[in-house]
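note to self — DONT lose this again. spent like an hour looking for the file last time. sequence + predicted structure for the chain T wanted, 222 res
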Amino acid sequence: MNRLWFFEDVNLFKMLCPHKYKAHTATHEFNNYKKQDYIYFEEDSSNKVYLIDKGKVKLGYYTEDGEEIVKAILAKGEIFGEKAILGEGKRNEFAMAMDNKTTICPVGVETMHDLMRDNRPFSFRIYKLIGFRIKKLERRLELLLFKDAKTRVEEFLKELADDYGKPSINKGETVINHPYTQKEIATLIGTSRPTLNSILNQFKEENRIDFHRNTIILKLSA
């Protein structure tokens, strides 16, 4: 897997967006959002699936104390709200635009079912996508329950390498350009930002990684 939620190098947006199909072009519109605009809230009706044409989208939920928990950050070509396909009645998460020029392609559930019925290979990829996301969330929960903070950071770095990593010009090293802030990473792995920063600096001193802003380099010894 080259990127989170992608399969076989296929951009789901290019395959699914209704404006690509004559039967849906006339009634299809794109929605534009600014940074921190909500695309949907928790408990909203779950009757659409969304594809990202431009910008980034954050998925998450709020605890009873009002703390924000970030589940994922998605980028161009990626899909979210897909549990509506399985009959989800209400959203159990929020979706928020992260860029001032975020463009979203909304697809009604009935339209989605029509497109999937007419394209069986694509239908398979969608169900594979849903299964992959569930498996990934289960793995993250397992780490939160049973592993210490250092192990959780190590596992998250491996996850980032799978999702965003590219070979470095230095043989054996991997460059990871990712969309997360340190606060968001800390939230995803269930630790504090100071603890995360301390662990990352420890790995840097051990020459396992180097990092700045949204770039992490996994070294040969990692």
